[in-house]
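Researcher: I'd like a candidate sequence for this fold, 257 residues long. If you have to choose between options at a position, lean toward the conservative one.
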């Protein structure tokens, strides 16, 4: 079973569990899907094949080439794209997304569900200023720690590591602070977005966490003494074959039309 299959099975087994449903959408956003096309991509543009169903137009995507081949029954043009890219490209077009049709994890996401996912992924963190006056031991649910671990794993190498600690500010506010230590220049927004998505998809009600990038100095050492450390090892880059389908090469991002 693929990660999306497993997330679908958990959601189907607990239909009233918001956490399971959010976990499914997270796997959908983070995973790579193969999108059925009308024809082979040309010039960086891809044209999804549109299926007119009773409740409107849908495009079809699968989380493996095998599922796509089983559905289509023949060789078909496709583009390999992250689920988040497909959702963001379809947002506002009134087009739904059919997933893994013909497989056990088949489902139809109506346009409003696609729009919700794209809007959630597009939510930008808010910048704020505050002065910490004390750190203390964090109280973070395990499912949030798990979500952070999954989100930060692909970001390995953008920072040395991350620290989480409780924090008190000079204005009397208390909360939690996640600090990225030794972050690369320009990585701040991407790291903050990853933390924001972890909060959203973990299902923590009214979840909020401040994010900052720090050098390895006194504040970081104090957070190390009292808080939790999240490792962010740099990934080992495998030998990269030539792209076999549009969307696999980040230097040539596809455009849906």
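Model: Candidate sequence:
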């Amino acid at each position: 079973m693929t990660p999306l299959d497993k997330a679908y099975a958990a959601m189907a087994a607990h239909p009233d569990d918001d956490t399971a449903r959010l976990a499914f959408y997270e796997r959908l956003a983070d995973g790579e899907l193969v999108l059925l096309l009308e024809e082979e991509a040309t010039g960086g543009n891809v044209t999804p094949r549109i299926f007119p169903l009773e409740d409107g137009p849908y495009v079809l995507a699968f989380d493996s080439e095998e599922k796509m081949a089983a559905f289509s029954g023949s060789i078909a043009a496709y583009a390999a794209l992250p689920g988040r890219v497909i959702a963001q490209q379809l947002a506002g077009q009134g087009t739904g997304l059919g997933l893994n049709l013909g497989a056990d994890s088949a489902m139809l996401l109506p346009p409003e569900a696609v729009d919700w996912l794209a809007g959630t992924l597009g939510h930008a963190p808010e910048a704020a200023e505050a002065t910490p006056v004390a750190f203390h031991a964090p109280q973070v649910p395990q499912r949030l720690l798990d979500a952070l671990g999954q989100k930060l794993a692909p970001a390995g190498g953008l920072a040395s590591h991350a620290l989480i600690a409780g924090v008190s500010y000079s204005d009397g506010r208390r909360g939690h602070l996640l600090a990225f230590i030794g972050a690369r220049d320009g990585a701040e927004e991407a790291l903050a977005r990853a933390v924001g998505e972890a909060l959203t998809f973990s299902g923590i009600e009214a979840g909020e966490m401040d994010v900052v990038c720090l050098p390895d100095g006194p504040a970081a050492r104090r957070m190390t003494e009292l808080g939790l450390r999240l490792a962010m090892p740099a990934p080992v880059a495998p030998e990269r074959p030539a792209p076999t389908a549009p969307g696999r090469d980040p230097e040539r991002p596809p455009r849906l039309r």
